[in-house]
């Protein structure tokens, strides 16, 4: 093929080389073939359809289930000087009709559509007037019931082939077992597709799985992990919104700043938090699984799970958000036996028998992953249909690669002697990033991050859209002084050089003449102290929940804990007088240890919160008695 693909890669994306498979996939699409791509997260799938769309003079229709991701991509493309638009439920009606008429004139290289939109007959009629080059189906595993993210809307995509028999279809996924892959080909009716499947083995990830005896051990390990990763970007996944908030507060008590992220936060707070994390203002983010879809942050050093995920695919995908820059990163799964019970409970409640069966299958696989003594990397490869030639990876807990923070006991004061192999990795782990970031002045990097935060705030776009982490690092390495130098920096194409070049050169110049990043102030007020202060001001629990942006039961739990530890005196006003007596009676009868038992022994109108508070006081009292009698 005579087309030079490196020229646009350099000019628009600012990259020197293709990643593995990218060039072959692009050529397959440009050649008009149906194409199926399985590539792990971070492999660089978007470029595979964006570049052919750019040089084909026609419009590529991209189907994606993730509204935020579509918008980010379209905005990034516009930043690069490539015309792109989005049609989904979040676009205002007037804008939609303008996009539709422009699209019919061929104004866009890429047009992002939601699957719901594509299912409408009027959309199909209109699409026939758009000069379509090809269809790209992102997250194609959503079409399969066997996958872990089945979306019924995706089933409509089966009609594409009949509606547009002469247009190539390219399917992309980061997560597909052999069965799901086959399903994608069948459902989309791909015709003699070219298949590109990249290995699922991500050798820079260290999988560490640990079944914790109880919540206390889990918390201790979480803190140990975060201390070992001080200064790194880390994602912590918690199973529920309440656990997200509790974890953030708990970490604050330990002096570790973290921000919460979950689906029930109002959109602005969520965006603000995501942005604070993306721009490295706060390094640790605690989220529910709602976080991460479409997150484009390459330099995440650890992903820590606080419960057992529903499936190995889900775990692989979430854990895989670490180390997208190829540097060593940790994936720690700190789970408890009760997680399995909870998963089983939810599966039991599934009505559809076939769906339930599939859920059990997934459950068995993830439990085997967590509990069997087989190499974690190997299990993942086998699950995704690969047969590795090696038996040991030396990058998981089973293969003796556990770090000290995981193996050392809290009370171990003497250094634990670790096997030589472990030390080797630990040393390599330290050295390797240093080698790769050789020549990167950390102060300059921080200075450029601050510059980037400023630009992002001014233009009201996410920081990574201004510039990726990898690009900032390359700036530190190459220290450009002219516009021509700038174009040699990875991730700076012509458009970016034009829009931000002068400002970057100016920032570098200021740094040379002595400017430094202003130290980040992170609020150091402890949640416990703040809560006690608010209580002493006479605030109600509801008010405190509102002020602290926490769920009511999270506030009550914290108060109860303070009472239990004797840091806060129980207040009669918290609970209607009669109720307190009732609860105390029940506690005398059944003990103060199990909430559920006490709750069952009481009338239904008495809440868990009330019980929790009275029980906390009872436990504190009996602890005091224990101390005296010792
Ligand atoms: P995926 O969709 O497979 O998860 P992305 O398309 O989001 O991956 O790409 C992951 C990261 O890799 C992005 O930051 C992207 O800009 C970067 N990237 C993609 N292709 C290249 C390349 N050829 N050279 C350098 N960086 C690349
Ligand atoms: Zn291993």
Write a structural description:
The chain is α/β, with parallel strands linked by helices. It folds into four domains: 6-197, Rossmann fold (3-Layer(aba) Sandwich); 205-430, 3-Layer(aba) Sandwich (Rossmann fold), CATH 3.40.50; 442-512, Orthogonal Bundle (DNA polymerase, domain 1); 527-629, no CATH class. It has a seven-stranded parallel β-sheet, with helices on both faces. Strands 8-13-12-9-11-10 form a six-stranded parallel β-sheet, with helices on both faces. Helix 2 packs parallel to helix 3 (45-55), helix 19 (442-459) packs across helix 21 and helix 26 runs parallel beside helix 29 (608-629). It is globular and about 85 Å long. Residues 411-436 have low confidence and may be disordered.
What descriptive keywords fit this protein?
single chain, 630 residues, Rossmann fold, DNA polymerase, domain 1, seven-stranded parallel sheet, six-stranded parallel sheet, 29 helices, globular, binds adenosine-5'-diphosphate, binds zinc ion
